[in-house]
Amino acid sequence: TEFDDKLLTFALTRPDETTDSITRTVKDGSSLMPYIPDSAGDWLVQASWPGNDGYLGSTSSVRSFTVEKADSTIEMYGLGATYLKEQDLRLYGRLGIANGNPAGVDLSGLPMTLTVTHPASSTSGTGDPMETEIAITTAATGTALSSGAPARNGEFEVTIPAAVLDIEGQWNIAVNFAGNASLEAKQRTETLPVQGKRAYFIVCQGS
């Protein structure tokens, strides 16, 4: 059509009232606007064309659409079959988005919480779980972890101090993300078997 190759501008307003603008080319009298929203909530969009020598410009009505929060995921790795009590434990993990992260949303600098639950918490009789909480912040992409490897988007590391893992038994390790404007809350729990330190003995032989 005579309007092919003309440029339409789409003005988008986020839930926090910040804006974005995208320009697309008209084909066959219409234009598609592939777009990946970067936050959840109610959005507004309006299309406009400035016109040319033969036609006046035009602006569409404002349309609204709702973006739901994405499901988040938590990975934990570095956990072995057993650990010795009274030794530091280095734990690695990663916060992510279910079904991938095609928009490349930055997941660095997000707060999380690691909760370490004592094996005796269910039988302590106090009604209060014997827990230790440690704050976690996801690392900036590319920064070096203690392993020497560069952090991936959403990756984190945390050390559970030796003084925490002070008895043998089945400990619970839970990583919790409270969620934010774009991501749903998520928690991942693993069991950590802790055993006593190995005993060594020395045999002296003489002749």
Radius of gyration: 27 Å
Briefly note the structural class of the backbone.
mainly beta
Please indicate the percent range of residues in DSSP E strands (runs of 2 or more).
Answer: 35-45%
The helical percent reads: under 10%
Query: How far is it from the N-terminal to the C-terminal residue, by CA?
Result: 106 Å
Mean pLDDT: 84
Q: Main β-sheet: number of strands, strand sense, barrel status? A: 5 strands, antiparallel
Low-confidence stretches: 124-128
Along the chain, the helix and strand elements come as: EEEEEEEEEEEEE
CA-based shape: elongated
Annotation field: number of helices? 0
Number of strands: 13
How would you describe the overall organization of this protein?
The protein is mainly β. It contains no helices and 13 strands. Strands 1, 2, 3, 4 and 5 form a 5-stranded antiparallel beta sheet that branches. β12 and β13 (186-195) form a beta hairpin. The radius of gyration is 27 Å and the shape is elongated. 13% of the residues are buried.
Give a brief outline of the structure.
The chain is 0% helix and 43% strand. It is mostly beta strands and 207 residues long.
Which descriptors apply to this entry?
43% strand; five-stranded antiparallel beta sheet; mainly beta; 207 residues; elongated; five-stranded mixed beta sheet; single chain
